Amino acid sequence: MSAPTTDVRSLTYVQAFNEAVRQCMEADDSVFCAGEDVGAFGGVFGSFAGLQARFGERRVVDTPISEQAIIGLGVGSAVSGLRPIVDIMFMDFLLVALDQVVNQAAKLKYMFGGKATLPLTITTAGGAGRSAAAQHSQSLEAILCHVPGLKVVYPSNAYDMKGLMVSCIREDNPTVMVKHKRLLGAKGPVPEECYAIPLGVAEVKRPGRDVTVVAFGRMVDESMRAAKRLAEDGIEVEVIDPRTLQPLDTATIVESAKRTNRIVVVHEAVRFGGLGAEIAAQIQEEAFDYLDAPVGRVAAPFSPVPFSPVLEQAYLPDADRIAAAVRSTLQRA
Amino acid sequence: MSAPTTDVRSLTYVQAFNEAVRQCMEADDSVFCAGEDVGAFGGVFGSFAGLQARFGERRVVDTPISEQAIIGLGVGSAVSGLRPIVDIMFMDFLLVALDQVVNQAAKLKYMFGGKATLPLTITTAGGAGRSAAAQHSQSLEAILCHVPGLKVVYPSNAYDMKGLMVSCIREDNPTVMVKHKRLLGAKGPVPEECYAIPLGVAEVKRPGRDVTVVAFGRMVDESMRAAKRLAEDGIEVEVIDPRTLQPLDTATIVESAKRTNRIVVVHEAVRFGGLGAEIAAQIQEEAFDYLDAPVGRVAAPFSPVPFSPVLEQAYLPDADRIAAAVRSTLQRA
Amino acid sequence: MDPTPDVLRDLHRRMVRIRLFEEAAGRLAEAAKLPGFLHLYVGEEAVASGVCAHLSDADRITSTHRGHGHLVAKGGRFAPMMAELMGKATGYCNGKGGSMHISSLELGMLGANGIVGAGSPIAVGAAFASKYRADGTVAVAFFGDGSTNIGAFHEAANMACALKLPAVFVCENNEYGEFTPRSKTMAITDIVDRAAGYGMPGVIVDGMDVVAVHEAAGEAIARARAGEGPSLVEAKTYRFFNHHGVQNLGLKYRSDDEVAQWRQRDPISLLEQRVLADGSLSQADLDATWADGRAEIDDAIAFAEASPLPDPATLLADVYTETLR
Amino acid sequence: MDPTPDVLRDLHRRMVRIRLFEEAAGRLAEAAKLPGFLHLYVGEEAVASGVCAHLSDADRITSTHRGHGHLVAKGGRFAPMMAELMGKATGYCNGKGGSMHISSLELGMLGANGIVGAGSPIAVGAAFASKYRADGTVAVAFFGDGSTNIGAFHEAANMACALKLPAVFVCENNEYGEFTPRSKTMAITDIVDRAAGYGMPGVIVDGMDVVAVHEAAGEAIARARAGEGPSLVEAKTYRFFNHHGVQNLGLKYRSDDEVAQWRQRDPISLLEQRVLADGSLSQADLDATWADGRAEIDDAIAFAEASPLPDPATLLADVYTETLR
Ligand SMILES: Cc1ncc(C[n+]2csc(CCOP(=O)(O)OP(=O)(O)O)c2C)c(N)n1
Ligand SMILES: Cc1ncc(C[n+]2csc(CCOP(=O)(O)OP(=O)(O)O)c2C)c(N)n1
Ligand SMILES: [Mg+2]
Ligand SMILES: [Mg+2]
User: Fold this and answer.
1) Does D194 sit within 8 Å of C162, measured CB to CB?
2) ipTM beyond 0.90?
């Protein structure tokens, strides 16, 4: 399932998020939202704009600055039969509440011998590029993907945002939906009807025969930009957006790697221990005999995110670095 | 530097830890310990036994059950010139305090433009195998290794424990020292003098020409056991214990892989996103042309740690599974 | 006014069942028949019993690492409990949770918890669901004195008050957190001093007097059901055994005298003396309760021992729910 | 008894310097010359000033996301502060921290903090170091009303009391957490109600009256220095600008009337009226302070604008300390 080419009205990434929440709340009274400033104010990124006016304070709840209790609110109400959407403003703040996410939400069903379902959606915002410095810019998805019991979704565009968010809300497992802060205003065609994009299904954003680039979140745009430039030199790059990071659609990635024989994984998180490591490990396990070059990784260097824009720019992967990595992968005999 | 073959008195892993702390406290008044039950009681694993009697309540401090404040106590006192050793009883509980570890301790120096040093040692206990179930058995080292600013140490024996703990305490950066719960009583030769094993230096536990196995913590014993069995069939396994996980001694591992051309990485953590992924990714990047088979991984499956011993046994990697992985790696043409 | 004989019989029965289950578990642990940690509730029976006597299966509770008593008081059956402690497939959690995660959603027991303080935020979520559905149910969070020093407790108590949820916070103040006395970990003596900081009423009750607990909990739960918001009930109590395991004397962190003094106020004996004195129950009533409990325990142990271990093939089952919609 | 003219001049000077720095930063932000977030302290100057007037460079403070005022009050120089806000190599943090992480160890300012509540546990560590060395220094944690709902604050307050540390907890209660009023996030009106739950004294003070803050903080800090343990000081105050940025009127979450009423009680005007009325300072004194501050700001902006950006080659410097021993 991928974005319609026929012209539908276009929405921003955050409007698509908002519409998914609104339509799911209209369809199911057990769905509610809670978080800091999500009520009257509509969320610091406007993600929840208009929802309290539409659904009232019962279903759109302003909470104290208490991330552990916010996740606990979600866990306890989900196991009691509701479908909470709880918001953690910045992904960095998940670290304040990780016990509730990892030790409670993710493990509860298993610890109960399967005798529980936890239809909980945790929404948050990740990524750098806004000079928000070390504690408001992190990409921590690799930590979440290492946790059995969680699902992790990271949309790269407005269309996917709506469809994936609908799936998260309907999902019967704890899911973390990560918005990228620099994509909030990105516009794209978004159908009005309430559609779902299944979790765990990657999308080939661009077919190509020479090399495969795997990227998610904002890095999809950078990869497409790199691919466009490389195409001018006759290099055909296949760009794959996993969209869901856990479970990961390894099959689609491996199938592509077996065709192109060369693959580069891109992410904003630091390289050491990032999702690129897992993807590289799986590809070399499953496509070893097909690879003409090592799986390349383009990622942030091993440091906190710096404040100064010149440093942050030097820190973040971009189309140039992706293109360079692709070229060096191709140079490998 | 590796364990002496000449006979010195032998200590348990936890006694070696205790002696390292005691000797460093004798040498430097700025070193102190704090944590739950570490004072009068000496720590739930006996790690701090006798230290409060020896150094008094000023230097061996019982704290409330407040992991965030325990790490904060370490951060604030370290940046104020002390050398805290703060204990988080079980590694699983680090998740309650991860903000202080990741957003504060690890980033403080960088956010301050380098104008601070943080000689902080966080000690904890990880690993499964004691029927302690999903919240007292986790191996979360991969999460810590993904964090710039932290160093992570995971000794596999009493000798390394003492030498590495001494280095942690003398280290001017935040370091997490992970004890494995099932190694606490493991005895080995430990010199009386206060010796340091440098961080970031792996040890070749056993030379071998046919295949390399990388393992740390309790998995070193299992790997050595597997190597011994395989040797009976004429398969010579080289076993490498990185000892420090961050920074990782990639050079030693890659050099070995280039000699044996086949390598298997072992850990207790779940496979997806575990440290094995990063090691595999680095090896295929740096030794691509030398590999005769994909880098193999032996790790826990993707589930929380189950309580029932039969399930936990099915969950945990062991010598059998390591041996099987080595054999299948060798079967690869 | 005094509880009726039926209520007293019910309170007695809950306490006796907890005592019998815990003592049996302790014996099995000594015989090395129980894997993992074992945190016994012996001595604190009046707290869970006095509170849970007011609750139906539709009301929800969250528990702690010391959770058997809460489940028994909430109606837990011995057979699947004992099977769970033995890691058998017939346990409440199919052997996947064990003592530290024992739970029963049908009984509204949202799990023992291995993370100190982590149950309270979950209770807030359960209380939110009660209010959301306006179904008159409540949520009760049980927690220890030591856990009130951890952030999760604070956030939960404040959020419950801010959202005026039907929640009751029940503190089992047994004066110790593991092996460290309260005096070393907080500068206050009474946990109830924390209630005002959240804007909820707080009351101290003798946690060895089940009738007193029953009365105080009744008011707090009625208040919650009436939509008047959360309350804190602090029960002064004591664990007769060690933090985990079954040793009770010769512990280096508390004196045998202290243990002996508290044992003088064994909550079950106190109730039995009282009901016999005022004649509300007869010795025969009490004996019958003990006899029933012993019979249930014997059957439960037999059941658990005869039960199969989980099939290793089920290791990866129950990590995720198959989503159908 | 009333502060001496010298003390009043010092308090006035600290407040004026904060005001001038923040207004200049606001103007630069509007001119898009400052990257990232900007949380201004305007309106709350009396709090940091009244407290820090009692502190030496050896005393340590922890701050919040709204940290410029704390650093200025602790003696921060405008030039490296402005350079840091511009992300220049000459900033206090060489451009790596920015507004939300601005710090100066030499001045005992342990950093603004982007994580609500995270500063308080660090202040506990600093206070521990003071007690450990018995050097008579203290640690002060500044934090907002909203942050008292997060676990880290609770753990820090309790631990400081349990260990009887020389710490002072200063709450800047400006009635809002971001865009949400206090009434929605807690069931209490006064943060000071939380002090008793930790076993420390708590006092409410008019956060717009710098002399009142100075007096209350003086007692709390003296108590800490005397080894009598922590205190909580709640200063009722108000931020004149939006949560971040410089908009102050037409905000959807608070009325312009409310803003206007608080501005009536501008802490700097209140002090100036008072000192002129009782003659302790002259108009000339006040003018001189403003003039000095303006001159310093102009120099600081010129310095910052002329300063070089960090060399991208330094990106990976400062992640780790080279350990030599
Ligand atoms: C976050 C966390 N920290 C520490 C522990 C270890 N621990 C288990 S029980 C316990 C003591 C709890 O004391 P209290 O809350 O008073 O309960 P009690 O055991 O006295 O019933 C501790 C420290 C834990 N399980 N979780
Ligand atoms: C853990 C965490 N949660 C949420 C935020 C987002 N946030 C930044 S400031 C703020 C409001 C803080 O309110 P208060 O403590 O009253 O300080 P004030 O801004 O009023 O000075 C919030 C919610 C954060 N930075 N950290
Ligand atoms: Mg206790
Ligand atoms: Mg505020």
Assistant:
1) no
2) yes
